[in-house]
TrEMBL record:
<dbReference type="InterPro" id="IPR016181">
    <property type="entry name" value="Acyl_CoA_acyltransferase"/>
</dbReference>
<feature type="domain" description="N-acetyltransferase">
    <location>
        <begin position="7"/>
        <end position="91"/>
    </location>
</feature>
<dbReference type="InterPro" id="IPR000182">
    <property type="entry name" value="GNAT_dom"/>
</dbReference>
<dbReference type="InterPro" id="IPR031165">
    <property type="entry name" value="GNAT_YJDJ"/>
</dbReference>
<protein>
    <recommendedName>
        <fullName>N-acetyltransferase</fullName>
    </recommendedName>
</protein>
<feature type="domain" description="N-acetyltransferase">
    <location>
        <begin position="1"/>
        <end position="91"/>
    </location>
</feature>
<dbReference type="Pfam" id="PF14542">
    <property type="entry name" value="Acetyltransf_CG"/>
</dbReference>
Length: 91
């Protein structure tokens, strides 16, 4: 079993997932002051089907809530996640 770790990296404006130190996916956002825009969510195809994309989006969501900023997405995957129940407070 691999040792995966998800980190929110504010200095890189992203949430990243690492497998034993190797970057295997990220959810990148732009900071627009009162709101953030998720622009990209990517996970290495070898790690597909494990829900990592959703966990990355949720890590950015948690940080946005902590900082009281609204969240939008130009990334189609993240935009779909943000339309689901439980994310209404971010719009």
């Amino acid at each position: 079993m691999s040792n995966m770790e998800i980190k929110f990296e504010a200095d890189h404006k992203r949430a990243a997932v690492y497998d034993e130190g190797k970057l295997i996916g990220q959810c990148v956002y732009e900071d627009k002051g009162d709101h953030w825009i998720i622009t990209t969510t990517k996970v290495d195809p070898a790690y597909g089907g494990q829900g990592l994309g959703r966990k990355l989006v949720d890590a950015v969501v948690a940080a946005a809530r902590e900082k009281s900023v609204r969240l939008r997405a130009t990334c189609s995957y993240a935009a779909k996640v943000l339309t689901k129940p439980g994310y209404e407070d971010l719009h």
